[in-house]
Structure formats: structure tokens, C-alpha cells
Amino acid sequence: MEALKGNQTRINEFLLAAISPTWQSQATLFAIFLLVYAVTLVGNTLIILTVGSDPRLRTPMYFLLGNLSFLDLCYSTVTAPKMLMDFLATKRSISFDACMTQLFFLHFVGAAEMFLLTVMAYDRYVAICKPLHYPAIMNRQLCSWLVAASWTGGFIHSTVQTILTMRLPFCGPNHVDNFFCDVPPVIKLACTDTYVIELLMVSNSGLISTSSFIILVISYATILVRIRSPEGRRKALNVCASHLTVVTLFFGPCIFIYARPFSTFSVDKLVSLLYNIITPMLNPLIYTLRNKDVKSAMARLRSKETASEKKLPL
């Protein structure tokens, strides 16, 4: 432990919670989560390669989709590898610095994805409600600036969260009531009154997640209201359905965790697993299963690979 002011000492490691108490179930869960993480890596990487290699997908919508897949890759990688190691470990510990690093990147990538989903909703609004002006409005330069703004917003948000957390005194206990380091369970271990800090963090994370979700719902509702014909509304709903599914899976747990005071509920850890591990795996499945262009591009990519393999000399 490192010395703090007075007689207090700062802890140099945290102990993370176990998903299951028995070794047999831990081994089973390790296999399941390893499969989920592998599917996440393969699915999102495939979307990135498909969007990057197919000229027909070089549009703003698929440019944003490729960035979303990259964020999902990063988001899952922040927590999944450490969790997989902990399944096989007798002591699930993480150093103080590593915990703060994990916390920083968790909020960095998570907030960037929230902002990017909002940008994707705006892209669909312009494409459906202003189709004639779409090429002029959503040009490649604007898309690049919007993606950069999403990353910048995530960085600023995460920097604030991390600095507020690191400035707290931690002198014990050191048992984090979660499977990874996140703001709500970590600041509960601080050796001081955290009421004001909790309010600041809830107003930060909770405001971002709730306001972004409201903007997304309003934008998709506006799209459906603006379209008069039943056939056009059906097509718009089909286009937006995948986005709405992703938004619900991602924002629902985030609002539940961050848009309330940091009181503890028994389901908090399961909700955390949902949006950290499961949702990044489901995103590529949702987009590919509902998107004919992506499925066709993947088929062309496979045919190119098969053709190149046949040309290789024996």
C-alpha cells in the first residue's frame, strides 16, 4: 500500500468479483465467454473488412457502420481478456493503475459509441427525409469530422470520469462488486464521502446516455412520421429496425447503470455483462442478418478469396 495523508495508506490493487463460486462452473463459463468473444472479434472484423474492400459500400452509412464495428471490437477488448483470465485464476486481482486504465478506456470507447450511434441516426434521417440533398450534406469530409467528434467527445467524457475517480482516497476495503473496473462500484470503496462525486458522475454519464437515447428515439420517430406512404414507411421501418435494436440493447443497460444514484442492485453485474460482452457480439449479427447489401458484399468477398486460393500454385 502507498502512503496517503495522515495515517491512511492507498491500496495498490483491487479484488474483482467472481461470476460463479465453483471451479466447474467457472470452467464452463470460460468456454462460453471465450466463444462469445471470438464471435465478437470475427463478426466485427468481417464487417470492417467487407466495408473497406467493397466499392459498393463506400457510402456514409457503411462508413459509419465500419466505425461502429471497430468501436465494438475495442469496447469488448477492454474487459473480455481480463475476465477470461480471471475465470482460470484463483485470485481475481487487478492493480490500481490497471483498474484506472480499464475504467478510462471503458468510458472512452463507450461514450464514443453513444455519440456515433447518434450520428448514424442523423445519417438515416437525412437519407430518408432529404434524399435529394443527402449526397451534398453527408459527404465524406463531414462523416470524418462527425466520427472524429464522437471520439473526441468520448475522450473528454472519460478523462473527466477518470480524474474524478483517481483523486479519491482508497485505503480499503478493496473488493470491487463487479467483474471489471467501472465508476459506480469503484468509488464506493473510497475512504471519504462520495455523494457530490456521485452526483457529478451521474449527471455526466447519465445525462449523456439518457439525452442521446431521447435524441435517437425522436429522430427515428420523426422519420416514420415524415413518410406518408405505407410502402415508404415499411421500408423506412425496415432500415431503422436494426438501428433501434442496437440502440435499445446498448442504451437500456447504460441508462439503468449510470442514470441513477450509485445504489447497488443484485442485477447490476448481469446488466454490465450484457452491454460489455453480449451487445458487441450481437451488433454485427443484427446488421448482417437484416442488411442485404452487407450480406451480398460478404458473399463477393468470400468468392474473391476462393478464386484467389484456386489460383495459388500447388
Automatic annotation (TrEMBL):
GO terms for molecular function: G protein-coupled receptor activity; olfactory receptor activity. Its main location: membrane. Pfam families: 7tm_4 (PF13853). It is a multi-pass membrane protein. Residues 43-287 form the G-protein coupled receptors family 1 profile domain. It is found in: Cell membrane; Membrane. Belongs to the G-protein coupled receptor 1 family. PANTHER family: OLFACTORY RECEPTOR. This is Olfactory receptor.
